[in-house]
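Anyone up for a design puzzle?
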């Protein structure tokens, strides 16, 4: 009897392993689940019947067969119902993915079913949301780029036609044409920089840099404009504060933030640069005494080509790429950048740089 039990157990184990490996070749999860259900029922049933055939009389065999068949049928029905439920959740996710691939960016998967499939649906919906925002940003990028390219080109064309028709002397329009060409060149350079950032092709040579001199250099660069606007610009940074960064790119970011702060600070206002060493990073803040930020501006000011209503109508704003490039440069350093309204009024824009170990 012991030999028979060992033989039946070994045979059952071997057949089970072979069939289980074969189930992996089935093309759908539904078929794999159904096959697993049949395997889980039929294999023990066959082992019981084989043992009963040897151990008991024929009448007892019939009883064993009846009990085993009833139990097996119940297990098969339960397994098929479970397989149907799981397959239905997968079908809903499949339908949503097909709709998304067909261009329906509003397609979302129901977040119900087994925990693993519900988590998969949540991940799918997050991906679909990101794709939708990406396409919206791309359409906005094309629209604003077209607008900002069209304006200087139309101006250049009008001035050239006036010169060609003898309505004006070339010297009259040369300074304006130079300005328009510089504007176009700056826009193209910014777009190229953004393309490098998006492609991950931006490489920075990071080194230890002392921030006091870097900040003072940027402050001196905006002093003339600040004086003309009657705005006080000051900096508070301790000598010896160092960070691991690319000084040229940090100057570019800081100068952009200072210029932006000056643009939105009224006469007799103030702009300050604060540098605060922290545990693993250095925080640099540019704050002004302007009107502060709206909820939309705080959320969108680092998006490319986004400009607040006042900036669009002031005639002083650029193409709306400076802050987007600043974010890309800071993130390339491994830092972060954000904006918020100051409690006492005005705007505070901060970014972090890696501290020197």
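Challenge accepted. My sequence:
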């Amino acid at each position: 009897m012991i030999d028979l039990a060992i033989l039946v157990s070994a045979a059952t184990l071997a057949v089970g392993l072979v069939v289980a490996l074969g189930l992996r070749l089935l093309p759908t999860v539904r078929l794999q689940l159904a096959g697993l259900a049949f395997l889980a029922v039929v294999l023990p049933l066959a082992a019981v019947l084989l043992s009963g055939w040897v151990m008991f009389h024929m009448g007892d065999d019939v009883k064993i067969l009846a009990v085993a068949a009833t139990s097996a049928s119940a297990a098969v029905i339960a397994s098929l119902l479970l397989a149907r439920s799981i397959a239905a959740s997968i079908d809903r996710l499949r339908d949503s993915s097909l709709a998304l691939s067909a261009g329906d960016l509003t397609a979302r998967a129901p977040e119900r079913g087994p925990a693993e499939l519900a988590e998969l649906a949540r991940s799918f919906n997050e991906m679909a949301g990101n794709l939708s925002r990406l396409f919206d940003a791309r359409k906005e990028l094309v629209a604003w780029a077209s607008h900002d390219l069209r304006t200087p080109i139309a101006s250049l064309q009008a001035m050239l036609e006036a010169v060609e028709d003898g309505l004006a002397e070339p010297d009259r329009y040369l300074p304006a044409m130079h300005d328009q060409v510089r504007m176009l060149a700056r826009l193209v350079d910014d777009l190229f920089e953004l393309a490098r950032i998006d492609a991950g092709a931006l490489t920075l040579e990071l080194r230890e840099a002392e921030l006091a001199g870097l900040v003072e250099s940027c402050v001196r660069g905006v002093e003339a404009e600040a004086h003309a606007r009657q705005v006080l610009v000051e900096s508070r940074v301790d000598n010896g504060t160092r960070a691991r960064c690319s000084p040229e790119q940090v100057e570019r970011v800081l100068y952009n933030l200072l210029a932006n702060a000056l643009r939105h600070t009224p006469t007799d206002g103030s702009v300050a640069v604060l540098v605060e060493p922290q545990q693993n990073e250095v925080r640099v803040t540019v704050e002004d005494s302007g009107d502060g930020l709206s909820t939309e501006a705080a959320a969108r000011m680092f998006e490319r080509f986004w400009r607040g209503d006042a900036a669009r109508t002031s005639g002083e704003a650029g193409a709306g790429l400076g802050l987007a490039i600043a974010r890309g440069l800071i993130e390339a350093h491994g830092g972060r950048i954000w904006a918020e309204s100051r409690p006492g009024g005005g705007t505070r824009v901060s970014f972090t740089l890696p501290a020197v170990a």
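A detail worth pointing out: The first strand starts at residue 207 and ends at 210.
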